What does this fold into?
Amino acid sequence: MRKYILIVCLYALFAGGVQAQNPLIRNQYSADPSARVFGDRVYVYPSHDILATEGRGRVGWFCMEDYHVFSSANLTDWTDHGMIVQQNNVPWVKPNSYSMWAPDCIYRNGKYYFYFPSTPKDTSYARGFTVGVAIADKPEGPFVPQPAPILHVRGIDPNVFIDKDGQAYLYWSQGNIYAAKLKENMVELASDPVVLGELPNKGLKEGPYLFERNGTYYLTYPHVENKIERLEYATGNNPLGPFKVTGVIMDESPTGCWTNHHSIIQFKDQWYLFYHHNDYSPAFDKARSIRADSLFFNADGTIQKVTPTYRGIGVTKANAQIQLDRYTRLSDKGASIAFLDTASKFQGWKTVLETTGAWVQYNSVDFGKKKPGSVTVRVLAAAGGSLQIRVQGIDGPVLAEIPVTAGNDWQLTKVSLLHFKPGLQNLFVISKDNNQIAIDWTSFE
Ligand code: FUB
It folds into this structure.
């Protein structure tokens, strides 16, 4: 066990930072995000999808062997704290079962309790999945797995909620959604599991996530109302219900990603929905990527439906490499997004402008108070062309005019700024030619 903790610590020491819009994590697959506010940071505990190969998992199915935790103080810069739990270091998990599915984490009395489902080697615990706990003194670990899973829990997708009176509840799913009270020690059930029965009877329900706001308990869950999952919610006056089905939080994936799985947090007066989609793996929906978008409540406490965006959450500094392909809006004509390299999708995307007047809009860029001297754009345009950068609108003040030299390689084009607008700005990059111009990123120095 000591060797395992040392490996986790070393990994965390060398773990890198990633900057993100949607998807949030840019160097690996990630799914089933459980976001939590611990102190002044947001921590996200996702599943870690990998691609199964012969002898490693089941080809064509979910394949997960470990968990990472990520955190951010500003919702833009995410730190990967590295691997926190690995399947073969959990005493009760069937070795090499690659079934480390959707987890959750919660804080209580100075400890962080990480709940995760997997398949036990001893089938007397459960024939399929059960749920175990790993405990840490810090949100990023090191986490020490308990020797045995929680007794009497059969299923996946654990979620923990602690009510105002201090009572903790465990929720999980296995077709239906189940709940039970947890003992003070957080690793044993304090009541018999019950099925939360007032939810839709037809269609799979899973991934429960319960939170409370203004005395209302929101039981949120992915549900297959039609062919694939959408995020729905029910409300009640008690953590164990009864609940009343209330609405849809997010519609089905427009491109057919079968699963969705989410969590909801409030951070610095704004509510956020964390969820997933298969951005880096459009042809295989079991290699997913986590995302986040803002969530709003109506005055009567109902949730406004969230429309997925690429722009996501958080402010982007003007001197960062601004990934315009994670756009807020694109012009109806002449603008599109494509992978930089379809053989290497983690390299990300490019914005392609093909006609005069085609544009891409990217919101919430922080220019601060001091005028940058120049702007750089990483571009590729076989026949050359020219771009214009504006703020506030496609007819707003022009920050820069950028001639793009013809060439078949990516080039960095740098020009001086014509004007400056301080503070938070919405950026517009507009093509002034009918030539194809691909843009990787832009940055103001
Ligand atoms: O990640 C594996 C499974 O897919 C999760 O447990 C479900 O909620 C679904 O997202």
